[in-house]
UniProtKB/TrEMBL annotation:
UniProt-recorded Gene Ontology molecular function terms: hydrolase activity
Keywords attached to this entry: Hydrolase, Signal
Domain Beta-lactamase class A catalytic residues, every copy: 42-256
Source species: Niastella soli
Name used for this protein in its record: beta-lactamase
Phylogenetic placement of the source organism: Bacteria, Pseudomonadati, Bacteroidota, Chitinophagia, Chitinophagales
C-alpha cells in the first residue's frame, strides 16, 4: 500500500473515532470499576440505538483466546457463501485433527462422519478446540481469515496460530489478537449484515446465541433476553464479547484482559468477577429498574 493511502486510511480512522458520541457518565463508571485490577483490561461498550460509546483502553491489543472462533465462523461462512462448503455437508474425522483437552470432537474415532453444521456448533457452543482448528483449516487457514478481516478495516485483529508470518505475534498473543473496539465493531458489523452478506450475518448471530459458557458476563443478563456471544480464556487472560438485544435497544459489550495475576479457573477469578460486575453495570445502565419479561 502506498504511503499516501496509509496516511489517508489513518486520517479516516481518526475522523471516525472522533465522530463517535461518547457516553461520559457510563465511561466514568467503567473507569472507576476497573481500578485496582491486578492485570491489564480494556472495555468497549456501544449502544446501537443511540450510537454512544464508553471505553477504557479500547484500542489496546489483547489475546483473543477462544474469541478467535468468531473470526473462524466468519471464514467458514465466507466459504459457504461462495459454494465452496455446504452447511450440512458430511466431514470425516481423522485422528490427526486431535487437539489435547476436554473436547467432545477429540473423542471421535478415526473415520467417523459428522456434519459441518455440528462441528460449528461444537466450536461455538462448547468452545471445542479440535473442532475450531479443523474449521480454521477448512476456512482457508489464518491467511484467508486475516484477508477478510483486513477488508473489513480491522488492522489489529488477526489470527496468529498456524498462520505463516505471524510467529512473533503468536509468541506474544497466542492463537489470535484483537482490541476491545475491533472485536465489538466486528460483532456490530455481523449484526448489521456487513460481513459476507445479510443472510450470512443472520446465521452467524443465530449460531453465536447458543453459548454453553454462560456463567460470566451473560449471567448478568436476564435469561429471556437474546445474547450473541463468545468468551475466551487462557491462564493470564479472560475476555468476552456480547451483543445484547435489550428491550430499549441492542448494545455491544466487549471486555478483554491480559497479564492477570489471578490465574485461577473458578468463578471467583478476579477478572471474571470484574467482568460480571461490568456486565451488570451496563445492563442496569441501559435498562434501569427494568421489569420487562415476555408474556406467558
Amino acid at each position: 500500500m502506498k504511503k499516501c493511502s496509509v496516511t489517508f486510511f489513518l486520517l479516516l480512522m481518526v475522523g471516525c473515532l472522533s465522530a463517535q458520541k461518547i457516553d461520559h457518565r457510563l465511561e466514568q463508571e467503567i473507569q472507576e470499576m476497573v481500578k485496582g485490577l491486578n492485570g491489564d483490561i480494556g472495555v468497549y461498550v456501544k449502544n446501537l440505538h443511540t450510537g454512544k460509546v464508553a471505553t477504557f483502553n479500547a484500542d489496546t491489543i489483547f489475546p483473543t483466546a477462544s474469541m478467535v472462533k468468531v473470526t473462524i465462523l466468519m471464514g467458514i461462512q465466507d466459504k459457504i457463501e461462495k459454494g465452496e462448503l455446504d452447511y450440512h455437508q458430511q466431514l470425516e474425522y481423522k485422528d490427526s485433527l486431535y487437539y489435547a483437552g476436554e473436547d467432545i470432537l477429540g473423542s471421535f474415532k478415526n473415520g467417523e462422519k459428522i456434519g459441518l453444521h455440528k462441528v460449528l456448533m461444537l466450536m461455538l457452543t462448547t468452545s471445542d478446540n479440535t473442532a475450531s482448528l479443523w474449521l480454521q483449516s477448512l476456512a482457508g487457514n489464518g491467511i484467508r481469515i486475516n484477508q477478510i478481516l483486513d477488508s473489513l478495516g480491522m488492522v489489529n485483529t488477526r489470527v496468529n496460530s498456524r498462520t505463516p508470518g505471524r510467529e512473533a505475534n503468536r509468541q506474544q498473543y497466542g492463537w489470535a489478537q484483537t482490541t476491545p473496539r475491533e472485536m465489538g465493531t466486528l460483532m456490530e458489523k455481523i449484526y448489521n449484515g456487513e460481513v459476507i452478506s445479510k443472510k450470512a450475518g443472520e446465521k452467524m448471530i443465530r449460531l453465536l446465541g447458543r453459548n454453553y459458557n454462560d456463567e460470566q458476563a451473560i449471567a448478568e443478563i436476564p435469561p429471556y433476553i437474546f445474547v450473541a456471544s463468545k468468551n475466551g480464556c487462557v491462564n493470564a487472560s479472560r475476555s468476552e464479547i456480547l451483543l445484547v438485544m435489550a428491550p430499549h435497544g441492542p448494545y455491544i459489550f466487549s471486555v478483554e484482559t491480559k497479564n492477570l495475576k489471578d490465574q485461577s479457573w473458578d468463578n471467583s477469578n478476579e477478572a471474571w468477577m470484574l467482568t460480571r460486575k461490568l456486565s451488570a453495570l451496563c445492563w442496569n445502565y441501559f435498562e434501569p429498574r427494568s421489569r420487562w419479561k415476555p408474556s406467558l
